[in-house]
Amino acid sequence: MILWLLACAARPVGGASLVVPEHVVIINLKEPGGAELILEIDRGVVVGRPAAAPEGVRVVDGGGAYAVPGVIDSHVHLALIDDGPARHGAAGIVAAVDLASPLTELAADHAPLQWIGAGPFVTAPGGYPTTTWGGPSYGVTCDDDASCREAVAGLAGDGARLIKISLGAGPDLSEAALSALTDEAHARGLKVAAHALTDDAAARARAAGADLLAHTPMEPLSDATVEAWRGGAVLSTLHAFGGSSDMRDNVARLRASGASVLYGTDLGNLQEPGVDGEEIDLLVASGLDGAAIVAAMTEVPARYWGFEGVGDLAVGSVATFLLVPEDPHRAPEALAQASQVWVAGAPVEGS
Ligand SMILES: [Zn+2]
Predict the structure, then answer these.
(1) Mean pLDDT over the full length of the chain
(2) What separation in Å is there between the alpha carbon of 29 and the centre of ligand 1?
(3) Å from CA of 235 to ligand 1 middle
(4) Is the model's pLDDT at 45 over the cut of 50?
(5) What are the chain's domains?
(6) What is the mean pLDDT of residues 241-265?
(7) pLDDT at 6 over 50
(8) Confidence at residue 17, expressed as pLDDT on a 0 to 100 scale
(9) For residue 173, what are the contacts with CB-CB under 8 A and spacing of at least 6?
(10) Higher-confidence residue: 226 or 111?
């Protein structure tokens, strides 16, 4: 693991370059919320949070900046990013969830960016998105219980770590086929994400056993649908889909009902890598405060997806973080204004 980080961190990252990580202590930092922080880093990993700089270690002055753990973007399409995923990583995105790609993408290495992917959608013949933006490579088709179970098993064997389905956007699978599909996915430890933008689609997805909404639905959700999603999760993608008042209300109501909100941008659909300031503004407008937004970008998705060594800056975590000028708990817009980014224990030059 440590050798892997060393090797990766010495590579150029998307036009910016990293220096080889060294043993260093960064003083004069704050955590979101304002607590004083000193980070000791060695070979790409946080090795200490001492009360004072230890002897014999090179000291870097953090200048009073707030250190935000590397961000997790829970909705991206790595294969659709115009200039590749590396710039995303260099902008402080430590981990990402790929919510649909051609099958070949599942084998791609984007280190030091950690990622998991769905591979192609599991969809009905002619279903979304195989006849629209995605084309045939973005869907594995099935039409009954047995073939949909086979589709899930095949994707799991190819390395998919979650399953993506769609409802209400073209020919849909039957409820029985969808239920068999989610049952097969859950038996393999895979969550099922549903593209479901209407109230009816979101309700049917949940009834069939889907775990999360790949997007905030665009149509106002009924009280019954909101209640059904209690304990589920929603990936925000507000900016990519216009961020209407209906969408913002849906976020607020889903959250109030006990659904988790995870920050997701639909990068690949949008083309600006890194932290999306408009997404953050729209999350604020949906009622999330700064602490909730930081959590939706870090610890909540780390736990939800099972990413290791990310989501916080505890001892043992990957030393990828943003330095931002203001407390993001009070000024969440600062999350999109990093003065410097560290990736795997080294500052990104030019950040
Ligand atoms: Zn997407």
Answers:
(1) 93
(2) 35
(3) 10
(4) yes
(5) 2-69+311-347 (2.30.40.10), 71-305 (3.20.20.140)
(6) 98
(7) no
(8) 56
(9) 122, 123, 124, 127, 142, 143, 148, 165, 181
(10) 226
Q: How does residue 18 score in pLDDT terms, banded at 50, 70 and 90? A: low
- Report how far ligand 1's centroid is from the alpha carbon of 219 (Å): 17
Produce one character per residue of 265-283: b if its CB has 16 or more CB atoms within 10 Å, e if not. bbbbbbeebbbbbebbbbb
| Cα end-to-end distance, the chain, whole Å | 25
| Arithmetic mean of pLDDT, 72-89 | 88
The 10 Å Cβ neighbour count of residue 311 is: 25
Read off the pLDDT of each residue in 75-103 and give the average, rounded to a whole number: 90
Ion ligand 1 residues within 5 Å by Cβ: 99, 266
Q: Looking at residue 8, what is its pLDDT?
A: 37
Q: How far away, in angstroms, is 21 Cα from ligand 1 center?
A: 34
Q: What is the pLDDT of residues 200-240, one digit of tens each?
A: 999 999 999 999 999 999 999 999 999 999 999 999 999 99
> Cα of 242 to ligand 1 centre, how many Å?
14
For the cut 90, the answer to whether the pLDDT of residue 27 exceeds it is yes
| Distances in whole angstroms, Cα of residue 108 to Cα of each of 79, 121, 287 | 9, 18, 37
Tell me the CA–centroid distance for residue 86 and ligand 1, in Å. Answer: 18
Tell me the CA–centroid distance for residue 99 and ligand 1, in Å. 6
CA of 85 to the centre of ligand 1 (A): 15
Ligand 1 centroid–CA 346 distance in Å is 31
DSSP 159: T
Report CA(165)–ligand 1 centroid distance (Å). 11
pTM summary value:
0.94
- CA of residue 135 to ligand 1 center, whole Å: 14
Give the SS3 label for residue 80: helix
Cα(32) to ligand 1 centroid in Å equals 29
Q: Rounded to whole angstroms, what are the CA distances from 107 to 78, 116, 117, 266? A: 12, 10, 10, 20
